[in-house]
Design goal:
Length: about 110
């Protein structure tokens, strides 16, 4: 594994952790994510968080991936970490690669003008 890919996986793990906390309504930080990737990382956190949790009409918190619940905030966070962590990290990695790719293309297009 190259150094760059390893870094991307580490960043994906941080973004996934932040998304699981966000989904449960807990605070999060994106420490260790390079400044140039912070805006993209925040977008990805929001996007992933929406797919991970839902609040039903009675205000009950459920896992959106498998439908389990009801959960407390902390309970949902622990459930996501224990059961769905691999999927969330993989999705975060895919979205980060996508964001990096789009930025590279945009930079090259700008430089070619
Ligand atoms: Zn679940």
């Amino acid at each position: 594994m190259t150094r760059q890919r390893l870094d991307l996986l580490l960043i994906a793990e941080k973004v996934a952790e932040a998304a699981m906390r966000r989904a449960a309504g807990l605070g999060y930080r994106l420490d260790g994510v390079p400044a140039s990737l912070q805006p993209a990382a925040e977008e990805i956190v929001e996007r992933l968080a929406k797919d991970l949790a839902e609040v039903d009409e009675k205000g009950i918190l459920r896992c959106r991936v498998c439908g389990k619940g009801p959960f407390t905030r902390k309970g949902l966070y622990l459930h996501l970490r224990r059961v769905h962590s691999d999927v969330v990290v993989e999705e975060a990695r895919r979205l980060l690669e996508d964001a990096i790719w789009r930025r590279t293309v945009a930079l090259e297009a700008g430089a070619g003008r």
